[in-house]
Amino acid sequence: MIRTFIHRHRLFLLNLTSASGLLASSDFCVQVFYEKKKPIDDKRILAALTTGAVMGVEGHVWYSFLDRAISQSTWRNVFKKVLLDQMIAAPVYTLTYIIGTSILEGRRSSRELINDTHTNFFPLYIADCLIFSPIQILNFKYIPSFYRVPFLSLIAFIFDAFISAYKHEHD
Asked: What whole-number distance in Å separates Cα of residue 28 and Cα of residue 57?
């Protein structure tokens, strides 16, 4: 029964675990190697893990939809996917990250959330577009859909470290 569930939902589980694990791992690396924190902020890592899980679900739903809506990997369709990804998904992921980690780190008032969003959204969204647009061209053109998340995970680990360092430098 469990084996059947895992087999049936392996893509969803892969997306969920890779997104949450990598976001938490990236934040851990930022705390240890960049911020040189002692002790490690467990609450912040848990916030990254939880926010990453939400982002993994968002990614699973989004990429499944995008692959169904635009199925052929012609160059024209690849550029359509990249444009849609950057115009629709990237702002959602950026907001999910900023608001999710802020709430889970204890900043819950509207004023704090608006301030966090105002401070962090535009720089993080621009960085996302600059880094992931060319990566997504490769991803949508050459990577089979089942392997897209692991491919993106390699790039996302580095990007997640950047966004964690950037956001927490501006706290």
From this structure: 22
CB 79 within 8 A of CB 29: no
Q: Single out the residue of 122, 121, 151, 124 nearest to residue 135, CA to CA.
A: 151
Count other C-beta atoms under 10 Å from residue 160's C-beta: 24
CA atoms within 13 A on the CB side of 157: 12
pLDDT for res 170: 63
Q: Could you report the per-residue pLDDT of 48-81, keeping only the tens digit for each?
A: 999 989 988 998 899 889 999 998 889 999 999 9
Q: DSSP class of residue 24?
A: H
What's the pTM? 0.84
Q: Which residues of 24-57 are buried (b: 16+ CB within 10 A; e: fewer)?
A: bbbbbbbbeeebeeeeebeebbebbbbbbbbbbb
